[in-house]
Amino acid sequence: MTTLTTSANDAPAVDAPTSTGSRSTRILGILILVGSAIGAYLGLVTSDADRIQKDAVRLFYVHVPVVSLMYIPVILCSVASIMWLRKRTDGWDALASSSAEVAAVFVGLGLVTGALWGEITWGTYWTWDARLTSTALLFLLLLGYLALRRYPAEPAARARVSAVVGILLVPNAILVHYSVSWWRSLHQDATRGFDTTMDGNQLSTYAVAQGVFVLILVWLSIHAYRNAWLALRAERGDLDLAIARRMADDDPTGGI
Amino acid sequence: MLADARLIAAKDLRIELRSKVGLGQMVPFAVLLLVLFGLALDPDSGVLSRATPGLYWIAVLFSGLLAVQRAFAVEAAPGVAEALRLSGVDPAGYFLGKFAAVAAQLVVLQMVLVVGVVVLYGADLDGPLLLLATATAATVAIAAAGTLYGVLAAGLRVRDTLVPLLLLPALAPVLLGATRASEAALDGGLGDGWGWCGLLAAFGVLYVGFGLLFFGTLLEET
Fold first, then answer.
1. How far, in Å, CA of A186 to CA of A196, rounded?
2. Chain A residues whose beta carbon lies within 8 Å of the beta carbon of residue B203
3. Which residues on chain A are in Cβ contact (under 8 Å) with B169?
């Protein structure tokens, strides 16, 4: 894929690339595949089972990296939304849209792996724990934002409305987190702590897993961004093409 | 700005007074919710009286959604948005006016609902000062967030489905705060009641401020 530009009308849609892959993302993808294989081997075979949690501790290597990264794309979405309001360029709109998608994937994955882990260690998929509850609400906030983005409307109107809702994502998440923590702390400890001392091979396995998930976040974000960008271009390009045809009057319906 | 706000609020409330669509449907809907909660949760088991604050605020939230949607449905007719833009009304004033009209309807709604929970659920209104403060702060919060998200519906011509999905998760802290504060008041011991009230006030201030800042953006011509 060639370099991306951020102006709206400099190329017709027909020139748009048909793939979101590039040499660098392919190298990144291969790194992720190799890293995942190494991580799976370390996590499932060589690392020791925990003294208290037994094999369930292996979920740690997936769950913790995911939840430790999930706020990054949420914040990115809000920042991109602010930048869109300042600059009004498609690039920021595409960044806001794509980071919300990646955020939903990470938050959803965090919830699922957390629920599985909870079933094994706490004996229940769900408790009204502060972190679980506020993460679930964050997931719902993201779903609402993505539903708004999916709504068929003019790109400019959608970008404007999405930007305002996107900026509110971070304050909403903070308010939700704060209120839920306060609520639950009246009844029980905010989170159930574990003895977090890890021995050497657990620590190194975790380090590999964390690294792989960082790469996955980057890889997903790049593809999601390019995808959002192409979707925007296709939307605009089709319209421009239709207008051009209508102007030339070779097709009175404008090809629609 | 304030003159514009007064103009818009007076217009909206006049429409509601004359058409009676909002209150004529919103208030009966809220009472219906109270009755349905009574059917769902056995009144004899004591669950109903323990859950009264939560049920009350859920009823306010859901009925408030109707008020928000109604507030922007009256302006969905073709040409109204353009006419508003041409009239030179200050966007911040427009936001404040809409907000005030929705808040006024929520106040009327809550007056009926309070009578409803006292009569139907046998609630004792202890701690009136805290209850009043909670109701005020929560009304401001719901009306401000509702107005902000409600105008999206007008801008995108989305009607009934998207606004609840956006608004309700954002209002989760308000539901939580209002319920805890009311519980504290009804329990007699004020506990964390005033703290929750402060959270509601902070939420309200954030959304009113945000509305004043960004309403213009939401109303822009595409």
1. 25
2. 175
3. 137, 140-141, 144, 172, 176
Nearest to A161 among B152, B165, B177 (CB): B152
From the number of C-beta atoms within 10 Å of its C-beta (0-12, 13-18, 19+), residue A24 rates as exposed
Place of tokens 């409307």: A153
Is-above-0.95 flag for pTM?
no
Residues of A in contact with B149 (CB under 8 A): 165
Whether the per-residue pLDDT at B115 is higher than 80: the answer is yes
CB-based contact B134:B185 (threshold 8 Å): yes
* Unique residue bearing structure tokens 């006024």: B104
**C-alpha torsion sign, points A177, A126, A97, B176:** negative
Closest-CA distance of chain B to residue A83, Å: 14
CB contact under 8 A, B222 and A85: no
CB < 8 Å to B155, chain A = 157, 160-161
Helices (H), chain B: 2-19, 21-40, 47-50, 52-73, 80-86, 91-121, 128-156, 162-170, 172-186, 193-219
Paired with A50 in beta bridges are A54
Residue pair A176/B173 in contact (Cβ under 8 Å)? The answer is yes
CA A204 to each of CA A32, A39, A42, A201: distance values in angstroms, whole numbers, following the listed order: 17, 10, 9, 5
| Average pLDDT over every residue of A193-209 | 74
ipTM: 0.88
